[in-house]
Structures are given as structure tokens and as C-alpha cells.
Design brief:
The protein folds into three domains: 5-184, 2-Layer Sandwich (CbiD-like); 189-270, Rossmann fold (3-Layer(aba) Sandwich); 283-319. The chain starts with a strand and ends with a helix. The chain is elongated and about 85 Å long. It is of the alpha/beta class. Helix 10 (298-305) packs antiparallel against helix 11 (310-319). Strands 6-7-8-12-9 form a five-stranded mixed beta sheet, covered by helices on one side. It has a three-stranded parallel beta sheet with strand order 17-16-18, sandwiched between helices. Strands 1-2 form a two-stranded antiparallel ribbon. The chain has eleven helices and 18 strands.
């Protein structure tokens, strides 16, 4: 267990480590045993964040020409569907090069715009680099100059992937091996922003020049049902409106349609680009400003300020003929 903590909302939360760290540790452990012929119980790896991990090696399987080792994923206090899974690495000797691929339960890329090319295992660049560097270090220490074939697998990964964004992103057959820092920070917002960016990258690589951004399921249902707009061009942006608009500029979109509830989107009128309530509210104040510009009387504006929901405020404005 990783004894590292962060504080979020006055709560002390324990950090964990990524599937990428698990894959690197499993590959390193299997390589050590393959080249030394000796079993080990624990393995240490470095992470891009600079934190050293010492992890328990599980379910070691030795065959004639290869070694398989497992590392158990620990997400800490983060709500992660991959928490507790076993990530395995099977390592065997080859004539040259260190080759990394995915096996059972690791997804395959089927669309352009993702971290890996179409047809490759969904093992992202940073985890691939971690696996390669850890294994190379073992080879150098052992004086081994041949090659290695490394297969990363996750039993049950195909079923687990249905609970993730992978099917939506065009990754089929399993989950992805992820992680840019090697460490999981609970309630990480950067992971969600990365997912939004990945989805936008995939859609624009497929030729989309106009996209629709919705905070969640209700907005998406409205776009597909009430508006009857083309499916497959909608990105769920959660509360990260500002970041999504920045990405639209980065990917040189011609247009971005925002579709969602006014309770969130009215905040944009006040320059609030993250619509989560922990950052700011301002809904009634913004509606009041609009009411004032539309000629509302002070008594009406006070009623709007006293509202709890935007629906209630809109009813007041509608009754006054100002909607």
C-alpha cells in the first residue's frame, strides 16, 4: 500500500498507482526472474512523478521459455473501476530488441487520434516508456544483450472495459494501460480533462470540424432526441467548459455547440468557465444582470435573487414577459 496522501475538500485521501506502473513493475519482476533464475517477492520501480514504488509480486508462473508476474492495482481512495485488478506481464527472450504488446484484456486501438496507432495495443506512451526503461535497466545490470518480448495482460479486462470510456473512444477488447505520472491522485480532475481531450482528438482526426459539447447524459440525450443532431459528434465535457473551448481552438474546429442545462451554462455569462459549484455560483446574479438590461423592475430582480433554482427564476422572468 502506498503511504502518500493528498488533501481535497478538507479530507485526507490516500494516493495509489496507475495501471502503467503495475505493467512496468510486472515486466521488471518477470525480467529479473527470467535473467537471474531466482524468484523475487517484491520489486521497486521509479515513476515519472519521482516517487519510488515497492510493490508485491503476485501469481508468478514459470514456463519453459518465459516468466509471468502479476502486480495488483491500488487506486488509493480514488473511485476507479480498475482498483484491485491484477496486471500481468509475460516476458520471454528473443534475438533482438525489446518489444511490448498487449494480450488478453488489453484493448486495441481502432480509430485515429488516440495515443497509439490503429491496431496497436492501448498501452500509452508513458507506460510504454516506463516498461522499456525498467526492463532495459535489468538487462544492462545482468549483462544481457539479447531481446525480449513483453506481453501485458489483464484477466477480465474486456468486461471491465464496458464500464470505461474505451468503447466510446474506439478501443476494443479490453482496458487501456494508462498513467502520465505513475501515481493516482484521488478525485483527479486532470484525468477527466485528458479523457475529454482524447475524445476530441479522435473525432477531429476522423474529419469532424464541428462538435457538440454537453456536460453529461441529459445534454447528450437532448442533442440526440429533441434536436435530432447527428450522433458520434458529441463530447461529454463535464464541468470543464473552459478547457473544452480551449481544446476546440487547439484542434482548429470551425464550430462548437454547447448543449446543456441553464443551471450550468448561465455561469458562462459571468466568465465562470468551470461550472462545478465548488468554484463559483453566480447563477441568480447573472440572471439579475440580464433582467436589469431587459428593463426589469427592482422588485422583480429581488425575487430572482431569492430563487434557489434557475427554473424558478426563469418562471418569474417568463411571467413578467422578459424571458
Amino acid at each position: 500500500m502506498l503511504e502518500r496522501y493528498v488533501y481535497k475538500g478538507n479530507r485526507k485521501l490516500r494516493c495509489g498507482y496507475t495501471t502503467g506502473s503495475c505493467a512496468a513493475a510486472a515486466a521488471k519482476a518477470a525480467t529479473v526472474m527470467l535473467l537471474s533464475g531466482k524468484p523475487i517477492e517484491r520489486i521497486s520501480i521509479g515513476t515519472p512523478k519521482g516517487i519510488l514504488l515497492e510493490l508485491e509480486v503476485k501469481e508468478i508462473r514459470q514456463e519453459i521459455d518465459c516468466i509471468t508476474c502479476g502486480i495488483q492495482k491500488d487506486s488509493g481512495d480514488d473511485a476507479d473501476v480498475t482498483n484491485g485488478i491484477l496486471v500481468f506481464a509475460t516476458v520471454r527472450k528473443t534475438k533482438a530488441d525489446i518489444l511490448i504488446d498487449g494480450g488478453t484484456g488489453v484493448g486495441r486501438v481502432t480509430k485515429h487520434g488516440l495515443d497509439q496507432e490503429i491496431g496497436k495495443a492501448a498501452i500509452n506512451k508513458v507506460p510504454r516508456s516506463m516498461i522499456f526503461n525498467e526492463v532495459l535497466e535489468v538487462c544492462e545490470e545482468a549483462g544481457y544483450t539479447g531481446g525480449l518480448a513483453i506481453i501485458i495482460s489483464i484477466p477480465g479486462g474486456e468486461e471491465l472495459a464496458k464500464k470505461t470510456f474505451n468503447p466510446r473512444l474506439g478501443i476494443e477488447g479490453g482496458i487501456s494501460i494508462l498513467g502520465t505520472s505513475g501515481i493516482v491522485e484521488p478525485m483527479s480532475e486532470s484525468a477527466l480533462v485528458d479523457t475529454i481531450k482524447t475524445e476530441m482528438s479522435m473525432l477531429t482526426a476522423g474529419g469532424c470540424k464541428y462538435l457538440i459539447a454537453t456536460p453529461g447524459n441529459y445534454g447528450e440525450a437532448f442533442v440526440g432526441g429533441t434536436l435530432s443532431l447527428a450522433p458520434g459528434k458529441t463530447v461529454k465535457c463535464s464541468n470543464f467548459i473552459g478547457e473544452t473551448i480551449d481544446m476546440a481552438y487547439e484542434f482548429q474546429l470551425k464550430g462548437l455547440l454547447l448543449a446543456g442545462h441553464i443551471g450550468k451554462f448561465v455561469k458562462l455569462g459571468g466568465g465562470i468557465m468551470n461550472t462545478h459549484s465548488k468554484w463559483a455560483d453566480g447563477r441568480m446574479e447573472i440572471l439579475c444582470s440580464c433582467g436589469l438590461l431587459a428593463g426589469a423592475e427592482p422588485a422583480l430582480l429581488k425575487k430572482v435573487l431569492d430563487c434557489v433554482t434557475t427554473e424558478e427564476a426563469l418562471d418569474i422572468l417568463k411571467e413578467a414577459g422578459l424571458l
